[in-house]
Amino acid sequence: MANPGNVVGGHKANLNNPNTSEEAKQHSKEVLEGELGDVQTGSDNMEGKNPNNVAGGLKATLKNPNVSDEAKESAQERLDEMGQS
After folding, report:
1. pLDDT of residue 28
2. pLDDT in tens, 21-72
3. Strand runs (DSSP E) across 32-78, as ranges?
4. What local confidence, expressed as pLDDT, does residue 19 receive?
5. Are 60 and 46 in contact (CB under 8 A)?
6. Which end of the chain has fewer surrounding CB within 10 Å, N or C?
């Protein structure tokens, strides 16, 4: 089976595509609501990710002057949850 994250992404894109038929949108909606079961699609899903790389990316976010204060606060909160500082 294909990567569930990619499948979910494709169905979400289909729902927002103005060139897609209503039948296709209905099918995507049904798949997202039920057939895929409990698929995690958020950035909080750390399965298969190297925690040190994630922490490094979050620390880089804190130092980046082009990142909003809100994003920096979120990155700091995630670092705190991971036990990093």
Report:
1. 87
2. 999 989 888 888 886 554 444 555 566 788 899 999 999 999 999 999 999 9
3. none
4. 92
5. no
6. N
Backbone angles phi, psi at 81, to 5 degrees: -65, -30
Q: How far apart are CA 58 and CA 36, in angstroms?
A: 30
Tell me the two tokens of residue 16.
């927002």
Euclidean distance between CA atoms 79 and 36, whole angstroms: 31
Mean pLDDT of 3-27: 88
Residues 80 and 47: beta-carbon distance below 8 Å:
no
Question: Which pair of tokens denotes residue 7?
Answer: 């499948």
- At 38, which amino acid appears? D
Q: Would the pTM count as exceeding 0.90?
A: no
CA Rg, the chain, in Å? Answer: 17
Q: How far apart are CA 29 and CA 85, in angstroms?
A: 40
The identity of residue 4, as a single letter, is: P
